[in-house]
Write a structure and sequence with these properties.
The protein is mainly alpha-helical. It is built from 29 helices and no strands. Among the domains are: about 220 residues, Serine Threonine Protein Phosphatase 5, Tetratricopeptide repeat (Alpha Horseshoe), CATH 1.25.40; about 110 residues, Tetratricopeptide repeat domain (Serine Threonine Protein Phosphatase 5, Tetratricopeptide repeat, Alpha Horseshoe). α2 packs parallel to α4 and α27 packs parallel to α29.
């Protein structure tokens, strides 16, 4: 028997059915991308490399807000930093399967939140960078393409969503530093942008002065990216010093400021600008850290800083780095520096033992490792006078470095063609950083004349440094010639980074108006 529904109930039942269907098929979107307190605290723990604490907060968030998709972004950020810092191939193979699951889950969320494209773009970009680290270049290229499309779409839909500029700026930097002969790749995957555009976008986040809590939270990440990119790609390493002021003037909590990531950024900026003792002070701050993901490169960095002031206790830190780090970069460089310490202590047996280790451990991918590899294969130990001058210069001890060269008899300081080329290069660098441009150019020109057909890097580096000097003076035509000269020299050592920097210089000059 069919029960008849009273007429007065029918309209309400119809409304209830419609609303029920409506609610059934519409996700609870307000909580899908909610960067709430748990997620904010987890993000801060991730930036501090306290991954265990971050995981606890993420698990708690998933229990309390199972529809919130922000934890997927946070989990991916942990994977990304684990791979970039740890460099372990086995871990890469283990974690890379997580990406597809997270992307699939995020794509089921509603796309009317700025965090939809942001989270997807960040995950694609993070995996692109990880794949580049491990040599999966084709997959990385297409992931960069996806990230670019997502960030670009977000910038149109939500122009006031400031943190989007971190990812968009990074993609634009990548597009801007691709060598001219590989521009067809960026054209193929639809990538555009310049170094300057990208850095400016990231700078907008790092210097944000508004009141939005989430944007404020992302400022340290933007400052970290900005410091790294400015140090490696900008025309003047001192351009990165303003990031130090950001660290000083912003109200970052102490745990975040003393994160291994920001210690790395602060120490590297100081070392690149000749403030070696200050860098050592920053590096010592990490001794108070606990329960953080191991960032063994900081041991290598402290070893370099100590060696720059001829503190042979640096060997402890290089040994620790070699023993602990499971990646492949800077291992050969650490062995080389142990060999230098032995050499400076007049221990030829120790030198030979350590320099041979440079051929059997790690890999020759980054320039520092390639240089160590070259020294080991070449079989010729560096000149101790020039080595001391080089180390003191790298530490910013310019007067001591100059005295090392000028107060040593020429027959002691120069024993080969390589020594002669390096001698004028070292003088040029010291005069350059000390503000004596005329003396610097004179020695750079001698270096190029004597070393442009040799396999060592001094001539190419001298040409590049002349380009910087002229560019900073506004002598853009002379700078162009110097950068072109650098590209025409093809040393075995440091060629990749020197040519990349020279090309970046030429790209900058295209936007300049000639002054001289």
């Amino acid at each position: 028997m069919i029960r008849k529904i009273p007429e007065w109930k029918a309209p309400w039942i119809r409304i209830a059915l419609i609303m029920g269907a409506f609610l059934l098929f519409i996700p609870r979107s307000q909580s899908q991308f909610n960067f709430d307190e748990h997620c904010q605290q987890a993000y801060k723990e991730i930036m501090a490399l306290r991954f265990s604490e971050a995981h606890k907060l993420i698990i708690l968030e998933k229990k309390q807000e199972p529809d919130n998709l922000i934890p997927l972004y946070l989990e991916n950020y942990i994977d990304f930093l684990t791979l970039i810092i740890g460099e372990e191939r086995t871990m890469y193979d283990q974690l890379k399967g997580n990406k597809a699951d997270r992307v699939n889950a995020l794509e089921k969320g509603r796309d009317d939140s700025p965090f939809y494209n942001f989270c997807l773009g960040e995950i694609h970009l993070q995996w692109a960078i990880a794949r580049l680290k491990f040599g999966d270049y084709t997959a990385a290229a297409f992931e960069i393409r996806k990230a670019h499309a997502l960030f670009s779409d977000n910038s149109v839909k939500y122009p006031s969503f400031v943190i989007n500029k971190i990812g968009l700026g990074t993609v634009h930097v990548i597009a801007g530093i691709v060598p001219v002969n590989y521009k067809w790749v960026t054209n193929l995957i639809g990538l555009d942008g310049t170094l300057e555009i990208g850095l400016n976008e990231i700078r907008q986040v790092a210097t944000y002065s508004g009141t939005d809590k989430i944007t404020q939270m992302f400022k340290p990440q933007a400052a970290f990216f900005l410091a790294f990119l400015a140090l490696n790609l900008q025309k003047n390493k001192k351009d990165a010093m303003f990031v130090m002021e950001l660290f000083k003037n912003q109200s970052y909590d102490n745990r975040l400021l003393n994160s291994p990531l920001l210690i790395f950024a602060r120490a590297t900026i100081l070392m690149k600008n000749g403030f070696n003792d200050e860098a050592l002070s920053v590096l010592r701050e990490r001794s108070s850290l606990s329960q953080t993901f191991p960032f063994y490169y900081l041991d290598y960095l402290e070893g370099v800083a100590r060696l720059n002031k001829l503190d042979y206790g640096a060997s402890v830190f290089f040994h620790r780095y070699i023993a602990s780090f499971r990646g492949r970069n800077y291992i050969r460089s650490a062995s080389q520096k142990l060999a230098w310490i032995a050499l400076l202590q007049k221990d030829s047996i120790g030198y030979n033992r350590n320099i041979k280790q440079a051929l059997s451990h790690g890999a020759a991918v980054v320039d520092e490792d390639k240089q160590a590899d070259y020294e080991a294969e070449n079989g010729v130990a560096p000149n101790m006078v020039l080595l001391r001058a080089r180390l003191l210069f790298d530490g910013g001890y310019y007067n001591s470095a100059l005295n090392e060269l000028l107060n040593t008899p020429v027959k002691t300081a120069i024993k080969s063609k390589r020594d002669l080329v390096e001698y004028t290069y070292r003088l040029g660098r010291i005069y350059h950083e000390s503000g004596n441009a005329a003396k610097a150019v004179e020695n750079y020109q001698q270096t190029v004349a004597r070393g442009k057909t040799e396999p060592f890097y001094y001539a190419a580096a001298a040409a590049y440094q002349m380009g910087l000097l002229y560019e900073n003076k506004g002598a853009y035509s002379a700078a162009d010639s110097a950068y072109q000269l650098c590209l025409s020299i093809r040393p075995r050592e440091y060629k990749t980074s020197l040519h990349q920097k020279a090309k970046a210089g030429l790209n900058r000059l295209k936007t300049m108006q000639p002054k001289i």
